[in-house]
Write a structure and sequence with these properties.
The protein contains 10 helices and 23 strands. With 472 residues, it is of the alpha/beta class. A hairpin with a 5-residue loop joins strand 20 and strand 21. The longest helix has 20 residues. The chain is globular, with a radius of gyration of 22 Å. The protein starts with 40 loop residues before the first strand and ends in a 14-residue tail after the last strand.
Length: 472
């Protein structure tokens, strides 16, 4: 049985005069760029057939500022639309996205879902599919996309292969422009882990050199009556092992950072299953302790009580709760460092290979200044603040991966703090500093401990040139 995110496409009529955008769409204004995402965050699914004001209402009530737009599907003839009937360039949604971004938030666009035609199936060639993905990414100015592949789409191996080829090509194209494209897969799961069709999809992604940012599991609709919080934790633990069998070079902390977890709040489609507010607290605590990257849920429009408990509804949860209680609970994950090696906001030297300090070259605070090893000297150029939002800050700026690169050898630099994945670092119990966006470690080139040795990204190897001591 496939677990799924519920949609109400059948209940959402086509809007009169709605423009369906295809590959030959006219020129249009793109949404403003966003700040990106921290290393750990909550981003519940918001229904694009509902009002765009839903995001601002939730933000005002809870402080939540990251959302996943559900869903981009085919509008006919290989044309990307929201919900099958709304232009990706819709003024209402662009305005809501711009407003959210101006307040420091951002959005993920989710492609697929349980209903309608998934674009990977609608578009018969890699080039056509790539063009539709690029249209959505550029129109919404996205750095982060999600692919909810379930039901018949998950067993369509030809579509899965087209999708992975198209996304890998887009990642390379954007990287050449200095832009990062994070790709997530949202997949059905059992408490014992992913099924074989999901594992096949992920192995196919790896074969095409697609950099998968995270695997988000739909922890819902198992069929049996279970403790839904513990079932979500069991599924996450099983996924950790499965990811390690695919991405064999990643550390345990890196694998946890590749995970997302999405329950269906309240009464599930299998109505004997109820994900309660207590379950939400249990899952959030587990996610924070293990360094899981994302918590989401289905769906924002359901995050309020029904008139009576036990009701399955598209517009309320059917369990006892206050308005936006699930959003507020999961939002506690946002900005945490997690992974068992996280630290609070502490300031001091970061020491590494050869006993040298992480240093800003020439104590220059200009954007682009090299980050290097140097004799520890007690200057402000070596006084790092390990912030609670996952950044490493010095001279009023952040340790940054140049051009948001993810490849081995990408150098680090000083840059204005901007909240993107290029400035997120997870400190592990093994004393590695891992950049979750790339899955690679902060590394002293060479390896050398000479003054002026540049710091870069490199595959985590356990070498002494990748070990760091943070301020205590």
């Amino acid at each position: 049985m496939f677990k799924h995110l519920r949609t109400i496409l059948a209940a959402a009529p086509l809007l009169a005069g709605t423009l369906l955008i295809g590959a030959s769409a006219p020129a249009h204004a793109a949404a403003n760029p966003g700040p990106g995402f921290p290393a750990h965050y909550a981003a519940p699914y918001v229904e694009t057939w509902a009002s765009p004001s839903a995001m601002s209402a939730a933000q005002q009530a809870t402080g939540l500022k990251y959302f996943t737009l559900a869903f981009v599907i085919d509008g006919g003839g290989c044309s990307a639309t929201f919900n099958g009937n709304t232009s990706i360039a819709d003024a209402g949604w662009q305005g809501a996205i711009n407003s959210l971004r101006s307040s420091g938030g951002d959005v993920i666009a989710s492609f697929g879902g349980a209903s309608g035609t998934e674009l990977g199936q609608a578009c018969g060639s890699v080039s056509a599919l790539q063009a539709q993905y690029k249209y959505v990414i550029d129109t919404l100015n996205l750095t982060h996309v999600d692919f909810d592949v379930e039901g018949g789409a998950l067993d369509d191996t030809a579509a899965n292969d087209r999708r992975n080829q198209a996304l890998a090509a887009l990642q390379q194209q954007y990287a050449a422009q200095g832009r990062q494209l994070s790709v997530d897969y949202t997949l059905p799961v059992d408490p014992t882990g992913l099924l074989s069709n999901s594992l096949n999809l992920l192995n196919n992604a790896k074969s095409h050199n697609l950099n998968v940012n995270l695997v988000n599991i739909m922890t819902m609709d198992y069929g049996s009556t279970l403790d839904m919080g513990q079932a979500a934790i069991n599924a996450a633990t099983a996924l950790h092992g499965q990811l390690g069998q695919i991405w064999t070079s990643k550390s345990s902390a890196q694998l946890w950072a590749m995970e997302g977890n999405t329950p269906m709040i309240g009464v599930n489609d299998s109505t004997n299953e109820v994900f309660s507010t207590a379950n939400a607290s249990t899952l959030e605590n587990f996610a924070a302790a293990n360094g899981i990257q994302e918590l989401a849920f289905w769906a924002l429009g359901r995050d309020k009580a029904c008139a009576s408990n036990g009701t399955l509804s598209d517009v309320c949860s059917g369990t006892s709760q206050s308005p936006y209680q699930f959003a507020a609970t999961f939002n506690a994950l946002t900005g945490t460092t997690g992974g068992g090696g996280g630290t609070g906001s502490k300031t001091g030297q970061i020491t590494g290979y050869g006993g040298k300090c992480v240093d800003v070259a020439g104590a220059n605070s200009a954007n682009g200044t090299a980050i290097q090893l140097y004799d520890c000297n007690g200057t402000a150029a070596q006084s790092w603040t390990v912030a609670g939002n996952g950044t490493l800050q010095v001279l009023g700026k952040c340790l940054d991966v140049t051009a948001a690169g993810t490849a081995n050898g990408t150098l680090t630099q000083l840059y204005d703090c901007n909240g993107t994945g290029a400035q997120q670092w997870t400190y592990t119990s093994a004393h590695d500093l891992v950049n979750p966006a790339s899955g690679r470690c902060l590394d002293a080139t060479g390896p050398s401990s000479a003054n002026g040795t540049r710091l870069q990204l490199w595959d985590c190897s356990g070498g002494a040139n990748q070990k760091w001591n943070l301020p205590s």
